[in-house]
Amino acid sequence: MTSIRITTVARLLVLAGLSAPSISMGQDVRARDLGIPFEGLPGPFNAITDVPGIEVGHVTIIRGDGPLVKGVGPVRTGVTAILPRGRGFDPVFAATYALNGNGEMTGIHWIEESGFLETPILITNTFSVGVVRDAVIAWMDSTGNNAAPDGLWYTYPVVAETYDVLNDILGQHVTRAHAFEALNSARGGPVTEGNVGGGTGMIAHQFKGGIGTASRLLASGHTLGVLVQANYGGRSRFSVAGVPVGQEIPDLLPNWDVLPRGSIIVVVATDAPLLPQQLQRLAERVPLAIGRLGGLGGNGSGDIFIAFSTGNPGAWRERPTASLDMLPNAAMNTLFAATVEATEEAILNAMVAAETMTGRDSLTAHALPHDRLQDALPKYNRWADGRAACRGRV
Asked: Does 141 qualify as catalytic in the annotation?
């Protein structure tokens, strides 16, 4: 069955007011496989790549063990790349929003000024933003994926970060070659999650965190997808579908003091034809999902979000006037709901996929135990009806 057919069937079910199971496409266990009662209908990959044309690539760097030796390791880091229209140069309408700004996302001033995202989006660790940003310019030049392959051009790459405490972050192990590898490996289809790419060394709610993604199909025929790099939150407030999981699993904490702070980067994408001010409204709904899971956007957290639309292809092209499509504001509520639902599921997908990791100075971040999460859900009468038990790791 092709993805087009799967999507068509799924949308017919939406129009009929019915639900459909997630199609895992051979991936490992994901959050909805554990019986979490999510809202909304996912796309065939339940990933940001369900939005046609979007490609995602990772490079993961894991090297060394034991005591920290700056510049040597242990290394637990990487880069994740998102290409809004694959390798074609066709800027998309975009907007950004920060819940708390103790973090970095480069290039956002021009997005706020112009309304366009002109480059891929890359996510890495805090101290590798510079090298990755410079690498994006070189990659765009070398591939011709820019405004003027045969002439002068300028652009402001979008690179975001979170702080990977498991990593020798001061060693700055990410190189230009790594950024090129992430960009060149970007593909559509299923997206690897957990300890990969920019999420390799991250911690979420004091469990192992990382990269996660999810999507929603809308009755209008449009798709919305989310990708997150989750590295935020404390344990005590961690909640799943209203269940106080952080209180049910108060152990399995990192083996030395890791403060319940950090950051989360969220990328929201849709093929619905939205203008920048409407995309701003989508980005502003992301914190509702973070709050559902127990995030506070604390002082030390960099919670920065970007939303873009692949609608209106060719809108950036210079001409006397441009005719644009725009979804009416009255139709935005379904997109708001999809943003919250997909962001919540993407964060949990990151945590469910992530595996226990030991990094610098033997710091260990434990995986969220699937079996204990499943035990907690029915205890609070929060179990997806008809969902077969999928007993995961202990």
From this structure: no
Per-residue model confidence as pLDDT tens digits over 45-72: 999 999 999 999 999 999 999 999 999 9
How far is the C-alpha of 43 from the C-alpha of 47, rounded, in Å? 7
Quote the tokens at residue 123: 């996510």
What is the sign, positive or negative, of the torsion defined by CA atoms of 59, 282, 314, 149?
negative
pLDDT of residue 3: 31
Write down the pTM of the prediction.
0.92
303 is catalytic: yes
- Quick one: average pLDDT of 123-131? 98
Would you kindly state where each structural domain of the chain is located, as residue ranges?
A: 33-315+328-379
Catalytic residue among 303, 325, 362, 371: 303
User: 221, 233 in Cβ contact below 8 A?
Assistant: no
Q: Are strands 357-358 and 302-309 parallel, antiparallel or unpaired?
A: unpaired
Whether 369 shows a pLDDT value over 80: the answer reads: yes
The pLDDT > 70 percentage for the chain reads 89
Q: Which of 168, 263, 271, 309 is catalytic?
A: 263
Choose the catalytic residue: 22, 128, 215, 301: 301
CATH class, 33-315+328-379 region: alpha beta
Query: What's the mean pLDDT in 312-341?
Result: 94
Contacts of residue 240, defined as CB under 8 A and 6 or more positions apart, other chains included, come to: 36, 293, 348, 373, 376, 377, 382
Q: Quick one: CA torsion of 318, 319, 325, 326, rounded to 10 degrees? A: 60
